[in-house]
Design a protein that fits this description.
CATH superfamily: Response regulator
Strand order of the largest sheet: 2-1-3-4-5
Radius of gyration: 14 Å
Low-confidence stretches: none
Number of helices: 5
Number of domains: 1
Number of strands: 5
Strand content: 15-25%
Order of helices and strands: EHEHEHEHEH
CATH class: Alpha Beta
Length: about 130
C-alpha cells in the first residue's frame, strides 16, 4: 500500500498568541503541519531547523527580532526558506530582510490570501521568489 505524502512542516514564530492561533488554523486548513513559538529564543531552544520545510517569522518581537533570528539561522548555514510577516509597513524592511536571507515580506493583517501560496512557492524552490 503506498504511503500518503508527508504534510510540509511550517514553524511560525510570533509573540502574539492570537496571531499564532490564527495562523496555525489557517495553515493546518491549507494542509500544513504547524509548530508555533512565542519567541525567537523558544524556537532556537526547541528546534532543529532542518526539520522544518519553511519558517514564518514575525518582524518585531521582544528580545530577538525576526530579522536577527533569520540572520543567526543563516550564519548557522540553515537554508530553510523564511517568510517575514510584519504589521509595520516600513519601506526599509524588505532590504533588511534580504540582507538576512529572507526573500518574502508579508504585511499583517492581510496575509491570509497569500501566505499559504508563498509557503508552497518557497518549499518548491520557485525561482520567482
Amino acid at each position: 500500500m503506498p504511503s500518503s505524502p508527508r504534510m510540509p512542516l511550517v514553524y511560525v514564530v510570533d509573540d502574539d498568541t492570537d496571531v499564532l492561533r490564527s495562523l496555525q488554523f489557517l495553515l493546518e486548513t491549507d494542509g500544513f503541519c504547524v509548530g508555533t513559538f512565542r519567541s525567537a529564543e523558544a524556537l532556537l531552544n526547541a528546534m532543529t531547523v532542518g526539520g522544518a520545510d519553511c519558517l514564518v517569522i514575525d518582524y518585531k518581537m521582544p528580545g530577538m527580532s525576526g530579522i536577527d533570528l533569520a540572520g543567526l539561522l543563516r550564519r548557522r548555514e540553515a537554508d530553510t526558506p523564511i517568510i517575514l510577516i510584519t504589521g509595520y509597513p516600513d519601506a526599509s524592511i524588505p532590504a533588511k530582510a534580504a540582507t538576512a536571507g529572507i526573500r518574502h515580506v508579508l504585511i499583517k493583517p492581510h496575509i491570509e490570501d497569500s501566505l499559504s501560496s508563498r509557503i508552497w512557492d518557497a518549499i518548491n524552490g520557485d525561482p520567482q521568489l
